[in-house]
Fold this sequence. Notes:
The complex is a heterodimer of chains A (about 140) and B (about 190).
Chain A: E1 4-10, E2 16-21, H1 30-50, E3 61-63, E4 68-73, E5 79-84, H2 91-107, H3 121-131, H4 133-139
Chain B: H1 9-15, H2 21-39, H3 42-68, H4 76-92, E1 96-99, E2 107-112, H5 134-146, E3 149-157, E4 166-175
Antiparallel strand pairs in B: 1-2, 2-4, 3-4
Helix pairs in contact in B: 1-4, 2-3, 3-5
Amino acid sequence: MAAIYSLYIINKSGGLIFYKDCGTKGRMDTNDCLRVASLWHSMHAISQQLSPVNGCSGIELLQADTFDLHCFQSLPGTKFFVVCEPGTPHMESLLRYIYELYTDYVLKNPFYEIEMPIRCELFDINLTQAVQSDRVALLGR
Amino acid sequence: MAPVGPRSGDAIFSSIDRVNAELFTLTYGAIVRQLLTDLEDVDEVNKQLDQMGYNIGIRLIDEFLAKSGVSRCVDFKETAEMIAKVGFKMFLGVTASVSSWDADGTCCSIILEDNPLVDFVELPDTCQGLYYCNVLSGVIRGALEMVSMKTEVTWTRDALRGDDAYELQVKLLKQVAEEYPYKDDE
């Protein structure tokens, strides 16, 4: 059974604003998470420069033997990425769905300050439901 | 679940949660009224409404992009059409039309025939300088700024002031490149 390890949201300037462990495997402490987030932000920016043709929007999928990393960047610049077991399906739709949850439960919360760390319980609850493996399969349809 | 391309404004409008239009209109009216009481100056109220709109716009853009499945527009013309046809429909339930393009395609008018914000409004003599719907111009400005377009949005026609429609002039001032590395002097 393919599993999701963790989920990150980074703001326009590369700061980690949300992190969530989704399973028992692949857990990381806070410092490592921050490091991964800022590393990924820079690598994503560099990858745009690597493109031989203009208009590249950066790495969308990084595959390694022990994990896959799927990234989705919204047009305003917030990045959502999920780290999962190699070959986990439907991650693109999951990321798009998380983006919708973010607009509904984070941005519409009047007490959420834009670009700041996300502490919204409703977002957490809905996200937990979304990453349950049977829900993810549903998104793929 | 993954949107396979831009969805139409109608489709999105019918699929998201909505509130009673009267509640919306009356709430907006109450806000404007309260601002007039608090600030006691019509120009200040215009400014405040614009700022409120801006604050809404910088958040709203994400919802617009997430739920419409719209991706990067090729030029400002497409952007204006998207605002008029998808944006207005999605959030206000009305469609607007785009016209009066200038020669280099950086300035246009968005015309609203139907405007749910003003259903019960008559502007009294004491508020003649008020742009009652100024929140809308702020929303557009804020939303476009988040996708790296600096714009200036002004009302050119306002039915509450005796014109025959609502017309917003949207002027593209500058397109900020979003690519790294940012230049040192920026």
